[in-house]
C-alpha cells in the first residue's frame, strides 16, 4: 500500500440538511441487537437517526437482557428472520445507507451478508455499509460467539464500505495490540487487507493519549481525527452512536472522510452531554440537540 501524509483535524460539516415537511427523508437501516437499558444497540442507533432527521428501518438480530451494569443474557433471532427483515424493508422502502452492530453468530453474519448482497448494500454497490464489529459490551460481556470471528473476517468485513472497530475488537480480529500511532496504522492496514474499503481504528480506548485519536484510512490516505478527551464515565453506546452518525451522513451522499469527521464531532458532543443512569454507566446522549443550553 502507498502512504500519504496524515491529515490532522479534518473539519466536520456543520450539520446534515433537515427533512422538508411532507418529503420522504433519507432512509437508513440498522442491523443490530436490542438493548433493554436503552443506551446502546438499536436504541442508540434510533436515537441518533431521529436526531439527525433520517428515517430508520430495523433488522433485529438479538434481544439482550441488560441494564447500566451489564448484560445478563440474550436470545438470538433465527437467521432466516434477520434475512426476511432486511429483504422486506429494502424491497419496499429502499435503503440509502446501512450499518451493522451485534450479529451474535456465524449464521446471522452469513444471513446478513446474503441479504445485503441481494439488496445491493455494501462496498461493491452504491449503497454504503458501515460495519461496527461488535464483539463484547463495554462491561466485557460477550456479544459474539468465539467461532464467529472468522466470519467477521471473511464474510462481513469484505462487504464494509467502512469498518469501525474499537481497540479490543481490533485485537480480536487482527491479533494486533494498538498502543500508539504506528500500531494504529498497522491495524488499519490489516483491516483493509481483509477487504474493507475504509478502516476507522478508534482510539477512544487508548488511555495513554490525552486526547481521543481516531485513524481513518483507505490505504492511500491516512486521516487522523483528534478531539479532546471528554472526562465522563458515562460512555455507554459510544461506538453505536458513532457508526449510526456515519451511516446517517453517508445516506446524504457525502464522502466517507466527511461522514466520519461529522460523526466524530457528533459523538464527542454526545459524550459532553452524557448523563448518569442506574447504578453503572450512563449513555452517550444524542438528545443534546434538543436539550436546553
Describe this structure in words.
- The protein is an alpha/beta fold.
- It has a single domain (6-11, 26-288), classed as Ribokinase (UDP-N-acetylmuramoyl-L-alanine:D-glutamate ligase), CATH 3.40.1190.
- 33% of the residues lie in helices and 19% in strands.
- The chain is built from 8 helices and 10 strands.
- The chain has helices at 41-51, 79-92, 106-118, 149-156, 167-174, 181-193, 238-251, 256-272; strands at 6-8, 27-34, 55-66, 71-76, 97-100, 129-131, 162-163, 198-201, 211-217, 222-228.
- A 10-stranded mixed beta sheet has the order 1-10-9-8-7-6-5-2-3-4, with helices on both faces.
- A hairpin with a 4-residue loop joins strand 9 (211-217) and strand 10.
- Helix 1 crosses helix 7, helix 2 packs parallel to helix 3 (106-118) and helix 3 (106-118) runs parallel beside helix 4.
- The chain starts with 5 loop residues before the first strand and ends in a 21-residue tail after the last helix.
- The model is unreliable at 1-13 (pLDDT under 50).
Notable traits:
ten-stranded mixed sheet; single chain; UDP-N-acetylmuramoyl-L-alanine:D-glutamate ligase; 293 residues
Blueprint (SSEs and pairs):
Layout: E1 6-8, E2 27-34, H1 41-51, E3 55-66, E4 71-76, H2 79-92, E5 97-100, H3 106-118, E6 129-131, H4 149-156, E7 162-163, H5 167-174, H6 181-193, E8 198-201, E9 211-217, E10 222-228, H7 238-251, H8 256-272
Parallel strand pairs: 1-10, 2-3, 2-5, 5-6, 6-7, 7-8
Antiparallel strand pairs: 3-4, 8-9, 9-10
Amino acid at each position: 500500500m502507498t502512504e500519504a501524509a496524515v491529515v490532522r483535524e479534518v473539519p466536520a460539516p456543520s450539520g446534515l440538511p433537515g427533512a422538508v415537511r411532507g418529503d420522504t427523508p433519507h432512509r437508513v437501516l440498522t442491523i443490530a441487537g436490542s438493548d433493554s437499558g436503552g443506551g446502546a444497540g438499536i436504541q442508540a442507533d434510533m436515537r441518533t437517526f431521529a436526531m439527525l432527521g433520517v428515517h430508520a428501518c430495523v433488522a433485529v438480530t438479538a434481544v439482550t437482557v441488560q441494564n447500566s451494569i451489564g448484560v445478563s443474557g440474550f436470545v438470538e433471532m433465527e437467521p432466516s428472520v434477520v434475512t426476511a427483515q432486511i429483504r422486506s424493508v429494502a424491497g419496499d422502502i429502499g435503503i440509502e445507507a446501512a450499518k451493522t452492530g451485534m450479529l451474535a453468530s456465524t449464521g446471522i453474519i452469513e444471513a446478513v451478508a446474503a441479504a445485503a448482497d441481494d439488496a445491493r448494500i455494501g462496498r461493491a454497490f452504491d449503497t454504503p455499509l458501515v460495519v461496527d464489529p461488535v464483539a463484547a459490551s463495554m462491561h466485557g460481556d460477550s456479544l459474539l460467539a468465539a467461532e464467529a470471528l472468522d466470519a467477521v473476517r471473511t464474510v462481513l468485513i469484505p462487504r464494509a464500505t467502512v469498518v469501525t472497530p474499537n481497540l479490543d475488537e481490533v485485537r480480536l480480529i487482527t491479533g494486533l495490540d494498538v498502543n500508539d500511532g504506528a500500531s494504529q496504522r498497522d491495524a488499519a492496514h490489516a483491516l483493509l487487507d481483509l477487504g474493507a474499503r475504509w478502516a476507522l481504528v478508534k482510539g477512544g480506548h487508548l488511555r495513554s493519549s490525552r486526547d481521543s485519536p481516531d485513524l481513518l484510512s483507505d490505504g492511500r490516505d491516512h486521516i487522523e481525527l483528534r478531539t479532546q478527551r471528554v472526562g465522563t464515565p458515562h460512555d455507554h453506546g459510544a461506538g453505536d452512536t458513532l457508526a449510526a452518525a456515519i451511516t446517517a451522513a453517508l445516506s446524504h451522499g457525502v464522502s466517507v472522510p466527511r461522514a466520519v469527521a461529522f460523526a466524530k464531532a457528533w459523538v464527542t458532543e454526545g459524550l459532553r452531554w452524557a448523563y448518569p443512569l442506574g447504578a453503572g454507566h450512563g449513555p452517550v446522549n444524542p438528545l443534546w440537540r434538543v436539550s436546553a443550553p
